[in-house]
Amino acid sequence: MIVSLNEAEVMATKAAWGAGRPWGLAQDAGRAMSTLEAMRLPGAASLLDVLVATDGVPCEKLRPVSTQSEWWQADRAMCPVLVGTFISDLGAQSEELKLRQVHAPLLLVPFCLMAFDNVVFNWSKCTIRSSDEGFFVRGALNAKVAEQVSIDKSEPAEEVTHRWQPGAVDIADEIWEALSAFAHRTYVPASEASRLKGAGAGLTDND
Q: Are strands 71-72 and 169-170 parallel, antiparallel or unpaired?
């Protein structure tokens, strides 16, 4: 499916809302997804993984909680949108963050860029390093759940593999359709009265 970045963001926002995220968090999810897609990174696939894995789970169970250790975690794998907003609010107060069990950790990247000028992410066998020109990416991005994620301030990446690319993006049809199914949960079912007021003459023959 070839769509504009704006269409991708709108769809992602509605899908996240349909999956139970409050509207503000749904908007954050939409922006994060479109930012990744603009870098030609799999933002749509990552968001879909999160929505499927956390469907029906209250947000309270997916957000990070303070612990006595250096790690932030929850009772189960955390939502990267909720973690990302936490990091954005935290700002530059921390030099390093360590997280246990995060769904689709790629979605954390756009949020962290609002908190740090340059940052390096590590999880599983993946490393992402940021710079003003884009991202250096090494390793597999498609982790559905990362058991451990570390986020550190860093020097800018000397090499860049992904840059911002304006214009339309290509999202796989099956991913777009799955996001659309979540988005459709937000639509109000048509009533008999609304159908009769819609296009056409309804039950009234004006001829």
A: unpaired
